[in-house]
Design goal:
Elements: E1 3-9, E2 27-32, H1 41-49, E3 55-58, H2 61-64, H3 68-80, E4 84-87, E5 92-94, H4 100-134, H5 146-154, H6 159-166, H7 170-178
Parallel strand pairs: 1-2, 1-3, 3-4
Antiparallel strand pairs: 4-5
Length: 179
């Protein structure tokens, strides 16, 4: 039996050290990306790596998934392979055996984390809207020199040649030309 850790933080700046600290593990898979879906490189690698009898250790439910459907599907997938999943913060272990109380707790806590993410995104949208109203939020800085695009087009260069010369997409040149 191998003890395998899964660690996830949302950004590359966040520290992973507090997760699974003090637990002896044979291997650790670490993702530094959002948990909004299961399209994470190290999560995929973990799912390919685990074998029957292994135990996957996760700090808390929100590190594995941020929505209930993904969470349940991931646990079911690992349990079907004979892999145990242990969430340390919540003190829950899933072996694939029927346990009504653990399934309830998984659903409730998974829903809480999903709700927490939805509220965070809603607050973020509200903050961006207020910043736009105040003229503070300008969006992502422009990466394309619009004047240079218009200058080259006015000089008779084709859309494709302008795009090639400035190393930008044809659609970007077309969008600037149409404005």
């Amino acid at each position: 039996m191998k003890h395998i850790g899964y660690v996830r933080v949302s950004t590359v700046d966040q520290n992973t050290e507090r997760q699974l600290d003090g637990i002896t593990l044979d291997k650790v898979f670490t993702d530094k990306c959002s948990g909004k879906d299961t399209n994470r490189p190290q999560l995929k690698a973990l799912l390919e790596y685990v074998r029957e009898g292994d135990e996957v250790h996760v700090h808390d439910i929100s590190r594995m998934a941020r929505n209930v459907a993904d969470l349940i599907e991931l646990i079911k997938q690992m349990n079907t392979q004979g892999v145990t999943v242990r969430f340390h913060k919540e003190g829950l272990t899933f072996t694939g055996e029927q346990n009504a109380m653990q399934e309830l707790m998984l659903g409730v806590l998974g829903s809480v984390y999903q709700f927490e993410r939805s509220m965070m995104l809603e607050r973020q949208r509200e903050g961006i809207q207020k910043a736009k109203e105040k003229g503070v939020y300008k969006g992502r800085p422009q990466q394309v020199d619009r004047e240079k695009v218009l200058e080259l087009l006015a000089g008779g260069l084709s859309i494709r040649k302008t795009a090639a010369q400035l190393v930008i997409s044809v659609s970007t040149v077309q969008r600037i030309k149409g404005q």
